[in-house]
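> Could you send the Twin-arginine translocation pathway signal prediction when you get a chance?

Sure thing. Input:
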Amino acid sequence: MREIDKRTTVRRRVFLRGAATAPAAAAAAAAGLTIGPDAAWAADLRHIKPATMTVLARAARDIFPHDRLADRYYIAAVVPYDDMAAGNAQLRTLLEEGAAQLDAEAKKRFGRDYIRVAAEEQRVEILKSVEKSAFFQKLRGDLVVSLYNQKEVWAKFGYEGSSHEHGGYIQRGFNDIDWLPET
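Output:
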């Protein structure tokens, strides 16, 4: 029976290995990885406004909520948008306007910016109001890959990674159904 690590801490070596592919995520770690209006990690980005990036990170957590995942995984999932926006003005505009739309909807409903809405249920209500927009569809679609393709996240969910190089799932865990409750 596999044991799933439910802690949200990460060892230095694991973080550094993952951060090699995302330099901005490494800077985020040094700055204290939190999603908030004054997040220091967002100030180091060059192509998208810091306020937009914090909104994107908060929206990422609200779209795919996992209590066992630390904010840093959501931050690492949206930080690549900064580099992608460098050569893509259309993407930059989509993200900036989408975040502004979330803020406007939050102000209209709750009198504050999206990032400052404390209740998750209220933020989800805001997201539902824009779920048909191109912005929301782009963010949700990209997050499926950028969030769940982080190897450090796999262990949090009990996924052991590819089994092809180990003979496939028949040889490695095909009958391992410890997640199924016994009846």
